[in-house]
Write a structure and sequence with these properties.
Elements (H helix, E strand, L loop, with lengths): L4 E5 L14 H12 L2 E6 L4 H8 L8 E4 L4 E4 L4 E4 L4 H13 L5 E4 L8 E3 L6 H9 L4 E3 L9 E6 L1 H15 L3 E7 L7 E7 L4 H12 L6 E5 L5 H6 L2 E5 L4 H6 L1 E3 L6 H11 L3
Parallel strand pairs: 1-2, 1-12, 2-3, 7-8, 12-13, 13-14
Antiparallel strand pairs: 3-4, 4-5, 6-7, 6-9, 9-11, 10-11
Helix pairs in contact: 1-9, 3-5
Length: 276
């Protein structure tokens, strides 16, 4: 069946409930879209391994997986259709830019699809970084210099400093790279400033899928809940934000209930009304 529309949903805080389960109503709504000729995309900041661990063998009614915030795309058949990489020189430039801004907590993620591999350097680390390092202990590698190819470099920033750090970082290197803000899923407070190859985002990955399937841009919708979804929501013709999102995004986009209360299903139902 030719796909005639595209619906993208974030995972954590949007489709995934706080206890790690999924709403049957949410999943049924995605299956309904698929059966009607809509391409369903899961767009997440998780790496392939992180997603695999999260799902624990569960299958989602999804056609495409946009992973690592758009650094890679995998089809439902397991085929890698997109992979974006930072060269060793790029990684060094980004690491130095963080250091110049006083950001000492940085992790350098492996190239896609091995983006779960965490490269780190010695230093005085904050609690959020230490917890992430402990969680990925089996996949972490201590390095002496940052000159390695990677999928992204993450700077761990106190929320009070995040706006200024992002502003300065964009001024310094934003013309060469993609800078994306995300909220730590560990302490739900620390800001992760993620830097990718130029053009990388959930939005650009979804648009590549849309173009490949020859779907009109007017036939797109997306739902998310955090800062790393903002480009995706601005890209979609019909964007939705779950009520557990940050206030500035709640003011910009159409609100749906929280991830605890069928955010995705409500977004799907409202969007489908456009076609009735």
């Amino acid at each position: 069946m030719k796909k005639t529309s595209l619906f993208a949903t974030d995972l954590d805080g949007t489709l995934l409930r706080n206890d790690g389960t999924f709403s049957t109503r949410d999943l049924n709504s995605l299956e309904t879209l698929r059966s009607g000729g809509c391409a369903v995309v899961l767009a997440t900041g998780r790496s392939p391994l992180s997603l695999e661990k999260c799902l624990g063998g569960r299958k989602l009614p999804v056609d495409w997986y946009v992973l690592s915030s758009g650094a890679g795309v995998i089809s439902s058949a397991g085929e890698i259709t997109l992979s974006r990489t930072l060269s060793s020189e790029d990684t060094s430039v980004i690491h130095r830019a963080f250091a110049d801004l006083g950001v000492t907590d940085t992790s350098i993620q492996g190239t896609f699809p091995d983006a779960h591999i965490l490269h780190w350097m010695t230093g005085k680390h904050g609690l959020d970084f230490k917890k992430r390092l402990a969680y990925y202990r089996a996949f972490s590698k201590q390095i002496e210099h940052p000159a390695i190819a990677s999928s992204e470099v993450i700077g761990f920033v106190h929320p009070d400093q995040a706006d200024l750090v992002i502003q300065k970082l964009v001024e310094a290197i934003g013309h060469r790279y993609s800078v994306i803000r995300a909220t730590s899923p560990i302490d739900m407070r620390t800001v992760w400033v993620e830097v990718f190859a130029k053009g990388v985002s959930k939005a650009s990955a979804c648009d590549a899928i849309r173009e490949e399937l020859d779907i009109p841009s007017q036939q797109t919708a997306a739902v998310g809940n955090d800062w790393n979804d903002i480009q995706l929501l601005r890209w979609a013709d019909r964007p939705f934000i779950s009520s557990n999102g940050p206030d500035p995004m709640l003011r910009e986009f159409e609100n749906v209930p929280s991830n605890q209360n069928n955010a995705v299903a409500v977004a799907v139902e409202r969007w489908m009304e456009d076609f009735v």
